[in-house]
Amino acid sequence: MTDPSPxxxxxxxxxxxxxxxxxxxxGPLSRAALTEATGLNxxxxxxxxxxxxxxxxxxxxxxxxxxxxxxxxxVVAAAPRVIAAAVNPEVDAVxxxxxxxxxxxxxxxxxxxxxxxxxxxxxxxxxxxxxAWREGGLSxxxxxxxxxxxxxxxRAADGLVRDAPxxxxxxxxxxxxxxAATGLPTVVGNDASLGAVAEHLYxxxxxxxxxVYLNGGASGIGGGLIVHGMPVAGxxxxxxxxxxxxxxxxxxxxxxxxxxxxxxxxxxxxxxxxVRLSAADEPxxxxxxxxxxxxxxxxxxxxxxxxxxxxxANAVNVLNPSVVVLGGFLATLAEHDVEGLTAAVGxxxxxxxxxxxxxxxASLAEDRLLIGAAEAAFERLLADPSGASSPAS
Length: 393
Hints:
Helices cover 41% and strands 22% of the residues. The chain has 393 residues and is of the alpha/beta class. The chain has three domains: 5-78, Winged helix-like DNA-binding domain superfamily/Winged helix DNA-binding domain (Arc Repressor Mutant, subunit A, Orthogonal Bundle), CATH 1.10.10; 82-194 and 369-383, ATPase, nucleotide binding domain (Nucleotidyltransferase, domain 5, 2-Layer Sandwich); 206-363, 2-Layer Sandwich (Nucleotidyltransferase, domain 5). Strands 6-5-4-7-11 form a five-stranded mixed β-sheet, sandwiched between helices. It has a five-stranded mixed β-sheet with strand order 14-13-12-15-16, sandwiched between helices. A hairpin with a 2-residue loop joins strand 13 and strand 14. Helix 10 packs across helix 12. The radius of gyration is 23 Å and the shape is globular. The chain starts with a helix and ends in a 10-residue tail after the last helix. InterPro entries: ATPase_NBD (IPR043129), ROK (IPR000600), WH-like_DNA-bd_sf (IPR036388), WH_DNA-bd_sf (IPR036390). Belongs to the ROK (NagC/XylR) family. This is ROK family transcriptional regulator.
């Protein structure tokens, strides 16, 4: 008779992962809710929760006092002191955050830079900040991994940054550099692809199965795709580079970059120049554009919105999404008149593809890329809570 324990252990590990993912994605849930969601019996749920608690991955809290029917059920929550370090290196700043397994952003730092940081310098910055966190606000926390959202092509197989043109990174082993500097497992992904995942899980596209996401940042325009509820990375992990498409521009008077690509025409740098700013974070740029009544600012906004509408119409025709989400400075372009932008897209897209289409602004705002990076960092732990766990840092 064969020993059934390996198969039984496999089922147990999958159930542990299922419970941990539920409380991570949905927030604190009662044992009764977990029983209903999984179909497992109450004693099995209690046993699994106890194991996750011993691993330091969840904590149980007192029952909801508003519940008045039946026996109160303890509430299970993801442990807030289990942390992922999330990083977004850009041409003008390196932004870092410590994000809990309960999805709370514990710390957030923007380190402005006056030069293009190298991969090695980025790794050193991350290591220095994590060391400082451990001495300060995150003393006693368990930092389980680092996730990087990089504005460039990232090879899915090994986290090699093949090309981040605005940072001047080529074939950069960023994952290995950060792991060596921090001693932590590291995951690297394209910033816009991670932003798409974040908005799909928690933001403007939550619960939507077919999504096109475009992100506008200091390094240009990237994108992410959700099809049948799953992220689409492409064969090598390079899908979604909308910014490299050739834009359709009806009038030569609206062209600023000769034969440039979309991100050369629809550009954060051009918006900054219009409001006479050399650098700014997203809220500052949005406020400056909203406050300006200068004709050249209005003209630039109108020009970029028109070109963006054509790019979105092409994406809608090819991919037929239910929702298009715009993040970064593209959200700023859209917020001025979402209905007008939708109409401009509809004027150029196939009528059937526009049926039910909704264009939305990213609801996670400037945290979207960091949240996406944290999700990538947590994935190994969520998939295998016992195998990926380790002693507190």
